[in-house]
Design goal:
globular, 39% helix, five-stranded parallel sheet, alpha/beta, Rossmann fold, binds flavin mononucleotide, 14% strand, 190 residues, 6 helices
């Protein structure tokens, strides 16, 4: 690594306190490999519904904070729930705000994703939609590994800690791949 380090902005697309996806992001913070620091974005619930008339008066403070956090990060990690076979509205809404000019902080930013659901599909359909959305924003989206945390209730303990060893291994692998790929795209020497 030659001392190079990257910062990843983590965005969990659920507002509820006991969220599996927030817990999965907390696990990612815990599992961050050498050279990676992960900063979870905490204000998703403060972002108002997108309104072009509001935008015309300037970005609301939580939106400005979100855009700034994206701009400052070397890479992004979305941790998405699946709502009706897609990404939750709160997440799409935040993406919509951050996608608008000027500056457009998403452009060219390396991004990876994962997601957790109590069912058997592990957010695969939401992640496919998220890939499409992020590709449309001209973001390089990491293809592999795919981290689909299915039957999530069995994978976290009563305190919300991710205890499933196989899932922890997949998350660490995802973070290592995102780190290496981000450095490659930055043109950093290996
Ligand atoms: C409006 C709504 C739609 C949902 N649709 C799906 C779905 O399409 N597929 C799925 O696996 N789970 C679905 N679920 C269940 C979520 O996966 C589950 O509530 C999950 O715990 C949400 O993520 P969180 O724990 O991070 O809040 C849905 C839940 C809600 C509230």
């Amino acid at each position: 690594m030659c001392g190079l380090a990257i910062t990843i902005l983590g965005i969990a697309g659920s507002l509820r306190q006991g969220s599996f996806n927030k817990r999965a992001l907390a696990a990612a913070c815990e599992l961050a490999p050498e050279g990676v620091s992960i900063r979870p974005f905490q204000r998703l619930g403060d972002i108002p519904l997108y309104d072009e008339d509001v935008k015309a008066k300037g970005f609301p403070p939580p939106v400005a904070e979100f855009r700034q956090a994206i701009a400052e990060a070397d890479a992004l990690l979305f941790v998405t729930p699946e709502y009706n076979y897609s990404v939750p509205g709160v997440l799409k809404n935040a993406i919509d705000w951050a996608s608008r000019p000027p500056d457009m902080p998403f452009i060219g930013k390396p991004v990876a994703m994962m997601g957790a659901a109590p069912g058997l599909m592990g957010t695969v359909r939401a992640q496919l939609h998220l890939r499409q959305i992020l590709s449309g924003l001209n973001m390089p989206v990491l293809s592999r590994p795919e981290v689909l945390i299915r039957e999530a209730a069995a994978k976290f303990d009563a305190d919300g800690r991710l205890t499933d060893e196989n899932t922890r291994k997949h998350i660490r692998n995802l973070l290592e791949k995102l780190r290496d790929w981000t450095l490659l795209l930055k043109g950093a020497p290996g």
